[in-house]
Amino acid sequence: MDTDVIVVGAGLAGLTAARRLSQAGRRVRVLEARDRVGGRTHTLRLPVTGVSVDVGGQWVGPNQPNIMALLGELGLETFPTHDQGQNLARLGGRMLRYRGLIPPLPVPVLADYALLERRFLALSRTIPPGAPWTAPGAAELDAQTFDTWITRHARTAQTRALMRLYAGAVFSADPAEMSLLHALTYTAHGGGINGHTLVRGHALQDRVLGGAQAIAQRLADGLEDVRLESPVSRVGQDDSGVTLHTPQGRHRAAHAILAVPPALWSGVAFEPPLPARRAQLQQRLPMGAVIKFMAVYERPFWRSAGLSGLAISDTGPVTVTFDNSPPQGTPGILLGFIEGGHARELMELDEEARRKAALDSLARLFGDQALRPLETVQRDWAAEAHSGGCYGALFGPGVWTGYGPALRESVGRLHWAGAETARIWMNYMDGAVESGERAAREVLDREG
Amino acid sequence: MDTDVIVVGAGLAGLTAARRLSQAGRRVRVLEARDRVGGRTHTLRLPVTGVSVDVGGQWVGPNQPNIMALLGELGLETFPTHDQGQNLARLGGRMLRYRGLIPPLPVPVLADYALLERRFLALSRTIPPGAPWTAPGAAELDAQTFDTWITRHARTAQTRALMRLYAGAVFSADPAEMSLLHALTYTAHGGGINGHTLVRGHALQDRVLGGAQAIAQRLADGLEDVRLESPVSRVGQDDSGVTLHTPQGRHRAAHAILAVPPALWSGVAFEPPLPARRAQLQQRLPMGAVIKFMAVYERPFWRSAGLSGLAISDTGPVTVTFDNSPPQGTPGILLGFIEGGHARELMELDEEARRKAALDSLARLFGDQALRPLETVQRDWAAEAHSGGCYGALFGPGVWTGYGPALRESVGRLHWAGAETARIWMNYMDGAVESGERAAREVLDREG
Fold first, then answer.
1. For A289, which residue in chain B has the nearest alpha carbon?
2. Start and end of every Amine oxidase domain (chains A, B) (predicted)?
């Protein structure tokens, strides 16, 4: 044996698993396809202003126990997301300024939205954590799209628009692309719609000082054997161990933890072949589509206009924005998300055309000052071969009920980790950490 | 250059393309991962009775011009599918004997079915061949599942059951797993529901004498450079050509035709990376789930009972059967299809348990004589690493409208073929041949 356990993927899931196994006295080798650690977290230092920004995952909140505990353990600090001032909503061509979650829409719309949300949350509370396929009426919930449910139950165009914005912002997808059961599952255990979308007290409350990639970097610094630029092309196992192939050669261990998105395993040779249900599951978990765009300004000019920097828009391509300035507030940074169908349209454009489309979108919300940034940065995660998309996998209709049990079930000496396999906070940093802890325990339990 | 064109995949699509290029004077190398040609066609000689059976694709019909022309060109003969006698339908626990397509259900059910079919066909006629994303109202048709549409429009349980049987038999999937737009697209250009499901004059009219794999074998026999057990793990391209990597080494050519199912390209390294939309499309085309089961008897005992061997059942695991005996009628062979959710359940069982479940299913239709075959054979296509499932790819909600144009669009020197890329008869042998002809023309056109 070259080592005790091989971990594939140096994102948060893989590195958390590797740390736990290493702490338990096991020899661990981490194989990472990229030339960096961090997976879907990536902190970049921008060339003009020298400011560091997260072009990948960046938020944590007090309702996310796994990532919060890990940050404490690694001695990393957080700072609050800026949310002082009024939010903006651009809906049906009208601009609204407001505080809190819901824009000041006409009373019938607010009543309709409240009813729809209550109905959605009541349904979501019927989903057992980690096992949505066992929910009452799971087959029926899984046989329709989230869009079908919205269309059927929303009585106003504005309510439909708000729910579509929720889907885009939280799933990086259109509601047509996912099953209702998945929308309920994903929403359920993160404190409902508010838990996923609110800042204070919720999932967007804090950012990591120094950038979110520092988490992976610290985890990797504590490990002895992390190998970059080592993509795995074949995975074998026999009675005594596993054999993984990279361009650098064969790697042999007693167990392997596979901590990259499920979609990336289709087309990789497994010997013996994976069980049919697992193999087909991997074909059925496509990644979301999102372009993360940031524009850097000398100062956060929107703050002096009484704006928080948080905005939603039903036109796009940017549909959600945040004030993403560093703790000290300069330079000012506006963050815009381009999701689902909007992301697909912009994928076809070159970088300059995308930049223009995104800045125009920001200017419709924040005025012409938004058109004159010092610099911009954009990241199309669908174009990243080793992620395949962000934030994570989508479950289309029929997938949870047809294939759910295969998501976490080990295949002999192969154990699955990654944010997609989390019981709660799937596709978040918290879910990645939860899955890494679980996979490490799984290996230790099976050794006996 | 090692050769002019490399074709990946020695199924009908790849070999058709290779033949056309070779006929046009080009040097062609075919790289095939398996130790045989034929892809999703595979003819087996059974050990006990010595009879040859197709465990993969087997039917052709006069409404399929591409495969019929190729059979003629290769000098292969066909023989008619046996359909003399009465069909069986087991619906809601009742057994019905009938002739023709539709069982003698109560008149209100027949009226409901007729209305539903008319509505479905009228919608399907609005879909332009090869470009469903341009259909009127495409976004709305693509935002819901086929199941949603059936549930909304079928007024009787029996009609719903018949439509679910149609989905299972023709898509190897549950209607919950596909978008309504896909169900319409797939159905539209094969002559409607009848075109896909009827024997005489339609897609199931004939079988290939000697087995369907003979087509691939004859195509391969005419080629000089077909390399088996050569799975492609990396695909590179530059200004002057393509480089494909197999365990045997590097293969260099001016163009490549990639003729394996789209799902199998996820996780394979492309250099430069594929365009984001193409890469995400590949994550979104999972393969259907089907187990093909055959039981061989001394003689076709159902014929003497006045039965055709064609049966449908709403209980499963076998939901559709055919008389699959050889032309001379002995031995007698019953073919049972196990699809979608039924296939997923049986995937979890061992071969013996599956055999028992399938035979019990046949016995409920054809009596206890069905329990005593001379031998049986089964093929779970989802367990085949180099197919990933059968008959072909499913388009879930949002995929056609979000990613459709990327299905056939060449990426530089890489050209896509395979039954999934056909304009008409997707996932049929005819579609595979159509796609191979098209890809070959594409390469010849771009050479200039």
1. B280
2. 12-444
Query: How many residues are there in chain A?
Result: 448
Angstrom distances, CA of residue A245 to CA of A5, A272, B28: 14, 14, 30
Which domains occur in chain B, in start order? 5-40+212-286+393-447 (3.50.50.60), 43-62+78-83+201-209+288-383 (3.90.660.10), 107-194 (1.10.405.10)
**Going residue by residue through chain B (448 aa), what tens digit of pLDDT does each one get?**
999 999 999 999 999 999 999 999 999 999 999 999 999 999 999 999 999 999 999 999 999 999 999 999 999 999 999 999 999 999 999 999 999 888 999 999 999 999 999 999 999 999 999 999 999 999 999 999 999 999 999 999 999 999 999 999 999 999 999 999 999 999 998 888 888 888 888 889 999 999 999 999 999 999 999 999 999 999 999 999 999 999 999 999 999 999 999 999 998 999 999 999 999 999 999 999 999 999 999 999 999 999 999 999 999 999 999 999 999 999 999 999 999 999 999 999 999 999 999 999 999 999 999 999 999 999 999 999 999 999 999 999 999 999 999 999 999 999 999 999 999 999 999 999 999 999 999 999 998 6
B254 reaches A (C-beta below 8 A) = no
Name every chain A residue with its beta carbon within 8 A of the beta carbon of B8: none
Q: Would you say the C-alpha torsion A28, A31, A36, A37 has a positive or negative sign?
A: negative
Assign A230 to helix, strand or coil. coil
Subunit contact A267:B263, Cβ cutoff 8 A:
yes
Query: Pick from A267, A286, A383: which is nearest to B276 by CB?
Result: A383
Predicted TM-score (pTM) of this structure = 0.96
List strands edge to edge, sheet with A78-80: A59-60, A206-208, A78-80
Residues in chain A with CB shorter than 8 Å from the CB of B283 are 263, 266, 283, 285-287, 388-389
Q: Measured between CB atoms, which of A174, A280, A388 is closest to B398?
A: A174
Please indicate whether, in this complex, the C-beta atoms of A145 and B147 are within 8 angstroms of each other.
no
Widest pairwise Cα distance in chain A: 67
Binary contact (B341, A287; C-beta < 8 A): no
Tell me, yes or no, if B162 comes closer than 8 A to chain A by beta carbon: no
